[in-house]
Design a protein that fits this description.
single chain, Neuraminidase, 4-stranded antiparallel sheet, globular
Length: 354
């Protein structure tokens, strides 16, 4: 029996690093950030960054990828915060903005980069000395994301539209916006930036920068629906508004939208169906304090629900620990959101060893 209990608690201890938790729409993060990449001063040393525009997390390998825009490189940092010295993974880029890391190959995942300076999305594979252009020209390319079929989506900032490239047909098509038309109409965009594909619904979410809103386009839709910010395209700093949303992530389970609110220097959470957002980090004015941002550009979550935010003019990436994953309602059976997978594993352990 002692052996059973020992095994049980060893597995319990290890589970947080193996299983992704479900983030509650009412979760709380420490609002004091820890700098895990960059020094706050622009530079090109391994410890420094210069206006990082995009970040992506590889959970299985516990790695943070950073698009170090003004240094024209991709930097790699460990998630365990054992060092703040970055490793240059790719260099000689042309103003890379957002990035997407396809982790099918753990040793060297395929990296897709929205190459703003070269007007294209590039694909970098193991051992490559240069990137391969994906799809047609993407003028003023700012965002990139993949769906479960490995179709590549790209934000064409200068032409106010989102493009999709299919690896099966080698064809590039427009899936949101109207070519060279901008404005706050539901079928238009205005200088789109970060994008996200919900693999459970195939919905496309867009940080519609100059319309100051997040638009959701269902598959094959002819227009979008505003899920965060003002549908009229007006900027603001109150809870119902955004001012130049720059990046986003969507919780595919709860449909909660997390937004990088650039000029308000804050990260906003919009619950599914909400008419206003909540500030989960920043919102304390522009600055370089541990609870402030100066042009936040992107965000990501690790599999334990911790929040990471890249900042342009602070030249750093900040870490915000998840400190309370309480549900949005009180329950007599549960006080913490956790994945169904965790419960299944625990059940298997008990049935196997007892």
């Amino acid at each position: 029996m002692q052996i059973v209990i020992t095994y049980f608690f060893v597995i319990l201890y290890c589970i947080p690093s193996l299983i992704s938790i479900s983030i509650s729409p009412c979760a709380i993060w420490n609002t004091t950030g820890i700098t895990i990449a960059g020094t706050g001063i622009s530079g090109a040393s391994p410890q420094q960054l210069s206006y990082p525009q995009g970040i992506f997390i590889h959970d299985r390998k516990k790695r943070l990828y950073v698009s170090d825009t003004f240094n024209n490189r991709i930097q790699l940092f460990p998630l365990d915060q054992s060092t703040t010295t970055g490793i240059t993974l790719l260099s000689r880029l042309s103003h890379g903005y957002k990035i997407y890391v396809d982790d099918d190959n753990d040793d060297f995942p395929t990296i897709y980069i929205a190459m703003n300076g070269a007007n294209r999305v590039e694909k970098w594979i193991q051992g490559a000395t240069h990137g391969i252009q994906i799809g047609d020209q993407c003028r003023g390319c700012t965002g990139v994301w993949l769906d479960k079929e490995k179709n590549i989506y790209m934000s064409e900032h200068d032409r106010h539209r989102i493009l999709k490239w299919s690896p099966k047909t080698n064809m590039t098509t427009m899936v949101a916006g109207e070519t060279d038309k901008k404005g706050p109409r539901s079928d238009h965009l205005n200088e789109p930036q970060g994008i996200f594909i919900d693999t459970t619904t195939e919905a496309l979410y867009i940080a519609d920068l100059i319309n100051h809103r997040i638009q959701k386009w269902l598959k094959d839709a002819k227009e979008g629906v505003t899920v965060a910010g003002s549908s009229d395209g007006d900027p603001g700093s109150d809870a119902k508004s955004l001012d130049r949303p720059y990046g986003l992530r969507v919780d595919e389970e709860t449909k909660t939208v997390y937004v990088v609110d650039l000029l308000n220097n804050r990260i906003q959470r919009w619950r599914n169906g909400a008419i206003e957002g909540e500030t989960i980090a920043g919102g304390n004015g522009q600055g370089n304090g541990s609870n402030q941002f100066f042009h936040p550009t992107d965000l990501a979550f690790d599999n334990q629900g911790n929040l990471y935010v890249s900042e342009g003019w602070n030249h750093r990436v900040q870490f915000f620990a998840l400190i309370n994953n309480r549900p949005c309602y009180e329950s007599s059976t549960s006080t913490v959101y956790s994945s169904t997978s965790t419960m299944l594993i625990l059940t298997w352990i008990i049935m196997t060893f007892i």
